[in-house]
Design brief:
Layout lengths: L1 H5 L5 H6 L3 H19 L2 H13 L4 H18 L2 H18 L5 H12 L9 H10 L3 H26 L1
Helix pairs in contact: 3-6, 4-6, 5-6, 5-7, 5-9, 6-7, 7-9
Length: 162
């Protein structure tokens, strides 16, 4: 966006007019909810509940689980909000299990950014949904298989590379 503005492809007024205010309000609201979630102690509660279930799981299974949960949540809530909610949880989970939390954080980042199955999970999906007159089921038909393929490929790459 900065390059577009600096090269004067569009002027700042046009750029500002293209921003959907309700979408920004939604993103900022969910970020506030995520901060409240962390400050209320909910993160520690969730980590304490989940850690015994995943304590003996191999790292690949942990990555797949974190990816799947993040992906599922991202389809119902915006990706930014899910990333804000899940990141402190996976950091706490990693520390609780005595593991490096970086692979789990990367799984959250990838899963929150790879939302294909609904128009809700990612801002671009929402914009395309409204502008192109798609149906919700159009996203499901293409998005679910894409979520599975990208999820497996990402999880394996995270496991092998990080």
């Amino acid at each position: 966006m900065a390059v577009v503005l600096l090269t004067r492809t569009i002027d700042p007024g046009e750029a500002w007019a293209s921003v959907d205010g309700s979408l920004l309000v939604l993103i900022f609201s969910m970020l506030a909810i995520g901060i409240g979630f962390q400050n209320a102690g909910s993160v520690d509660l969730i980590v304490g509940w989940v850690a015994p279930w995943l304590g003996l799981a191999p790292m690949l299974l942990l990555i797949l689980t974190v990816y799947a949960l993040t992906s599922l949540l991202t389809e119902a809530v915006t990706n930014n909000a899910v990333a804000v909610l899940m990141t402190p949880i996976v950091i706490g989970l990693g520390h609780e299990l005595g593991l490096d939390p970086r692979p789990l954080i990367v799984a959250v980042m990838m899963a929150a950014s790879a939302s294909f199955a609904t128009p809700i999970g990612y801002q671009t999906n929402t914009l395309v949904y409204a502008a192109a007159d798609y149906r919700f089921t159009d996203f499901l038909k293409i998005g679910i298989p894409m979520n599975i393929v990208v999820g497996l490929a990402s999880s394996l790459a995270i496991y092998w590379l990080i």
